[in-house]
Design a protein that fits this description.
This protein has one helix and five strands. The protein is mainly beta and 95 residues long. Strand 2 and strand 3 form a beta hairpin.
Length: 95
């Protein structure tokens, strides 16, 4: 489960994306109604918002571990209810 925490590190994720070689600007498109530019790379296709801040909106890759990930609710508050201890499962706990 610790591997999923990388998805919560926006700056780290963007560093990885920006270091992808052979990126080419593609066509304009819309992701969930928001205008985006397509960035084509050897590792996948990235869609970046063209209005406001250039947030990453969608990532699609292929290969042995394909990804189709859409980011929504950017800059929106998140409400979280803390579960009771009995309702928490720790995947890293082997006991």
């Amino acid at each position: 489960m610790k591997g999923l925490t990388a998805l919560c590190d926006r700056d780290g994720l963007l560093r990885e994306i920006y270091s992808v070689p052979c990126a080419e600007k593609g066509a304009l498109t819309k992701i969930d109604g928001q205008e985006a530019v397509t960035i084509n790379t050897t590792q996948g296709v990235f869609h970046v918002a063209t209005k406001g801040e250039p947030f990453l909106l969608k990532v699609t890759t292929s290969g042995p571990n394909p990804i189709d990930l859409t980011f929504t609710g950017i800059n929106q508050p998140v409400q979280v209810a803390v579960p009771a201890d009995k309702d928490v499962y720790d995947a890293d706990d082997n006991g």
